[in-house]
Specification:
two-stranded antiparallel ribbon; single chain; alpha+beta; 598 residues; five-stranded mixed sheet
Length: 598
C-alpha cells in the first residue's frame, strides 16, 4: 500500500499501516483468516459465504469508527483510521450478515427476472453494435475517488487479479496517470457506449464533479461521441438518502448527483454545429451563465448555491457552451446571500456551532431599493391568496368525502351495539369481548373523524399539506419562508393546524400591509438573534421600537419572537417607568402562550 496515492493522503504511515493486514487488529485479522480458510475449503455455500465475508471486512477493521448510537461507521472513499475505533465480534457479525443476506435473497426471488451482471473494460465492450436500449453510467471523475486503491482491501482477501488497475480511468500521479490519460480513456469509453447504443436511444450520464474544467471536457467528449443532449425544463438530480458531513456543510462539495441525458443520433440526421463562445460572441459566457442564474432565482428564490450551480452546469453543458469559470464571482454579481437558521424541527432552530451547520445560505436576486418592498408585498399577497383558496377548496372536498365515512361509522356502531344488547339478553352467542373491542375501535375512529371535520369546517389544514401545495403550485415564491407567510396571512389553531382569517376583524388585521412589513422586519432581526450573528449597523432597534415590536408580537400571536425580543433584543431601560411595566406585561403574555404551546 506504500505505492498508493491514498497512502500519503490518508497518512497511513502515522498509524503503522503498510499493508492490508495492518488495517486490522490481530484478533480480528486471525478470526477473518480462519473464516476465509474454512469457507474456501467448504464445498457448500462457499460463494455466498465469501460474498458475506466481503460485506463485513471493512466493518471488522480499524477503520470502523465509534459512534454515539453504538453502531460503528466507516468513512467512505478513504482509508481513514479514527481516533476512537469500534471493535466488533467477527463471528457474531458474520452470523448476522449471513442472515441478512439469506433474507434479502428470499425477498427478491419472487420478483427477480433473468439478468446478467458482468465486469468488463468500458473501453472495449464485448457487446454487438446498436444493441442496447438504454445506458445509465456514473463515470469516474478525475482523481477524486481512487476506486482501484480502495478496492484493494477486498481484492487482497479474495486474492483477486489486480491487473485491471492499469486500465482504470483515473487521475493518479503515483501511478503515472495524468489528466490527459483520463480524458483519452473517457473518450474511448464514451465512444464505445455510443457504439453499442441503438440509434435514437438514450444514455444518462450521472456526473458530480465540482470542477468547472472537467464539465467543459465532458461536454466536448460527448460531442465527439456523436451524443446529442436532450432538452429538458431544468436540471435532473438523484438525491441520496444519507449524506456525508462534507455534503451537508462544505461549499465546494456536491450535495447530489446531477444527471444529463443524451441521445444517439439516428442515421441520416445531420450533426448540428455547436459554436463555442469566443471573444466575438454575443452574449458572452458570463452573460449566458448569469441569465441561467436569474431564471433559476426568479422561479425558485432562496435556492442554495449548489442548486444554482447544478442549473448552470445542466443548462450550459446541454447547450455545448460550458467553460471554466469562477462561479462564486458570477453569482455574487447578480444575487445576494441571506443566512437562515437550520430547522431542528418545525418550531426549533439548530444550536450554533463552529462548523456553521446551524445556518444555510440562500440566494435572492439583487433588487434596487426603489420598488423592492412593493414587489415583495405583491408576491407575498399572491402567495397568501393562493394558500387561502387552497385551504377553502381542500377542506370543502375533505368534508364532502368524509361525510359518507361518518355515516358509515355511526351505522356500524349502532349495529354493533344492537348485537351486544342481544348477547347481554342471551339471544346471541357471539363473543362479547370482540364486540366491545370493535365498538371501542370504531368509536375512537369516529371521534377522531369528528375532530378532523371540526378543523376542516374552520378551513384548517396541517402544515405538511400546505407545504406540499406551496412547493408544487405557488410561483413566483416570495423571499419570506412559508412559516412567515402563514403567520402573516393565516391563524394557527390550538391543534397546530393553519386556517385563513374568517371574521371581518381577523381579515382586517391580517390584511394590513403595514403589519406585514413590521412582521418581516421582526423576523429578520429574530433570525439574526437566533443565529448568534453580529447585528449589522443600523439594524438594532431603539428601545421604543423594540417595545412596539414586542407589543406587535403579543397582538399577532408571534409569542416566540416576542419572548426572544425581550430577552435578547436590546436594552429597554431607556423607556419610561409605565412603558417598562407595559412591555413587561406583553413579555409575560408571550411567555405564557409559548409555554402552553409546548
Amino acid at each position: 500500500m506504500r505505492g498508493f496515492s491514498r497512502y500519503q493522503r490518508d497518512a497511513l504511515r502515522l498509524y503503522a499501516v503498510n499493508e492490508v493486514a495492518d488495517l486490522f487488529t490481530k484478533r480480528n485479522l486471525w478470526a477473518l483468516a480462519v473464516l476465509r480458510h474454512h469457507i474456501v475449503a467448504s464445498q457448500i455455500w462457499s460463494d455466498s459465504l465469501l460474498f458475506t465475508l466481503t460485506s463485513i471486512l471493512l466493518k471488522s477493521s480499524r477503520m470502523m469508527a465509534h459512534n454515539s448510537d453504538g453502531i460503528g461507521r466507516i468513512q467512505k472513499g478513504t482509508y481513514y483510521i479514527p481516533q476512537i475505533e469500534h471493535d466488533v465480534h467477527v463471528g457474531k457479525f458474520m452470523e448476522e450478515a449471513f442472515g441478512d443476506m439469506v433474507r434479502g435473497f428470499q425477498e427478491i426471488q419472487p420478483i427477480c427476472t433473468d439478468l446478467s451482471i458482468s465486469t468488463a473494460d468500458a473501453q472495449e465492450l464485448d457487446i454487438p453494435d446498436n444493441s442496447v436500449d438504454y445506458i445509465f453510467t456514473d463515470p469516474p471523475y478525475g482523481g477524486t475517488v481512487q476506486y482501484g486503491e480502495l478496492n484493494f482491501a477486498w481484492e487482497a482477501w479474495l486474492r483477486a487479479d489486480t491487473s485491471w488497475h492499469g486500465a482504470e480511468i483515473v487521475v493518479n500521479e503515483q501511478r503515472g496517470k495524468s489528466e490527459g490519460d483520463w480524458a483519452n480513456m473517457m473518450r474511448k469509453a464514451l465512444k464505445e457506449a455510443a457504439r453499442v447504443l441503438r440509434p435514437g436511444r438514450n444514455i444518462s450520464i450521472c456526473y458530480h464533479d465540482t470542477s468547472e474544467g472537467t464539465w467543459e471536457l465532458l461536454q466536448d467528449l460527448t460531442a465527439e461521441a456523436e451524443l446529442v443532449p436532450e432538452e429538458v425544463a431544468g436540471a435532473l438530480y438523484i438525491e441520496s438518502k444519507t449524506k456525508t458531513t462534507n455534503q451537508y456543510f462544505a461549499e465546494k462539495v456536491t450535495k447530489r448527483d446531477l444527471v444529463i441525458n443524451f441521445r444517439k443520433r439516428r442515421p441520416g440526421v445531420k450533426r448540428s454545429v455547436v459554436h463555442f463562445t469566443g471573444a466575438e460572441d454575443t452574449p458572452t459566457f458570463r452573460q449566458k451563465a448569469q441569465a441561467v442564474i436569474r431564471d433559476c432565482l426568479l422561479a425558485n428564490p432562496g435556492s442554495t448555491k449548489d442548486r444554482i450551480y447544478d442549473e448552470v452546469v445542466s443548462h450550459l453543458v446541454r447547450k455545448g457552451q460550458m467553460e471554466a469559470h469562477n462561479f462564486e464571482e458570477l453569482l455574487r454579481e447578480v444575487a445576494d446571500e441571506v443566512k437562515e437558521p437550520v430547522k431542528k424541527n418545525l418550531f426549533e432552530n439548530e444550536e450554533p456551532d463552529l462548523l456553521g451547520s446551524h445556518q444555510v445560505g440562500r440566494w435572492h436576486l439583487k433588487e434596487s431599493e426603489a420598488g423592492a418592498e412593493e414587489t415583495e408585498c405583491a408576491t407575498a399577497d399572491s402567495a397568501g391568496t393562493r394558500i387561502h383558496d387552497f385551504l377553502a377548496k381542500t377542506t370543502a372536498v375533505r368534508l364532502k368525502e368524509s361525510e359518507s365515512k361518518l355515516n358509515e361509522l355511526q351505522s356500524e356502531i349502532a349495529h354493533l351495539r344492537t348485537k351486544l344488547q342481544s348477547v347481554d339478553q342471551g339471544k346471541s352467542d357471539e363473543p362479547r369481548g370482540k364486540l366491545v373491542r370493535d365498538i371501542r375501535e370504531r368509536t375512537e375512529r369516529l371521534e377522531k373523524l369528528i375532530a378532523q371535520r371540526t378543523e376542516w369546517e374552520r378551513q384548517a389544514i396541517h402544515y405538511s399539506d400546505i407545504f406540499e401545495f406551496y412547493v408544487a403550485a405557488v410561483n413566483p415564491k416570495p423571499k419570506a419562508m412559508l412559516e412567515e407567510i402563514l403567520e402573516d396571512y393565516c391563524y394557527q389553531t390550538d391543534e397546530g393546524n393553519w386556517r385563513p382569517p374568517l371574521t371581518e376583524p381577523e381579515k382586517k388585521e391580517k390584511g394590513s400591509e403595514r403589519q406585514r412589513a413590521v412582521r418581516r422586519k421582526i423576523q429578520r432581526f429574530c433570525n439574526l438573534l437566533e443565529a448568534g450573528d453580529a447585528i449589522p449597523e443600523g439594524q438594532r432597534p431603539d428601545a421604543q421600537t423594540l417595545a412596539d415590536w414586542i407589543r406587535h408580537c403579543r397582538r399577532t400571536g408571534l409569542h416566540a419572537q416576542g419572548k426572544l425580543l425581550y430577552e435578547r433584543g436590546g436594552d429597554l431601560s431607556a423607556l419610561g417607568e409605565q412603558a417598562q411595566v407595559d412591555v413587561e406585561e406583553d413579555y409575560q403574555v408571550c411567555v405564557k402562550h409559548q409555554t402552553n404551546k409546548r
